[in-house]
Description:
143 residues, 2 strands
Amino acid sequence: MTAPGREAQGVVFPYWRLSAFYFFYFATVGALLPYWAPYLKTQGYPPARIGELIAILVGTKIVAPFIWGWIADLRGRRMAIVRLGSLASVLCFALIWLGEGYLWLALVMLLFGFFWNATLPQFEAITLNHLGRSVAAYTRVRV
C-alpha cells in the first residue's frame, strides 16, 4: 500500500484535497440532517411544514445532479462546477438569516439544495477520474 498522495499503481492523485472535500461534505450532512428538524421545531414550525422543508431538500437531490451533470458534460469543467456549487450552497444557506417565514425558508432550501446536491456527484466523477485504474484507492480517499 502506498502513502496518501503518492503514486498508486502508476497514478498520482491529490489524496488530501480529495479527502478534504469528502470530509467537509459529510460533516455538513452530519451537522444539518440531525439538527435541522429540531431547529425548525424551536422556530415554531409544525411537523408537516418541517417535513415539507426537508422534502424540498431531498427533492433537489433528484433533479440537481442531472442538470449540473448536463452542464458539466457540456462545459467539461467539473471542478469549476464543484467550486461554484460549494460556494453557492454556503451563500444560499446564509440567506436563512436575511428573511423569515415558511416561504422564505422553502426558497432557501430550494436554492441551497439545488447547489449542494449537485456537488457530490460531480466530485465523485473527479475522484474516479483522478484514480484512473487505481479504484482500490477510492475507499482510502473517502475514509
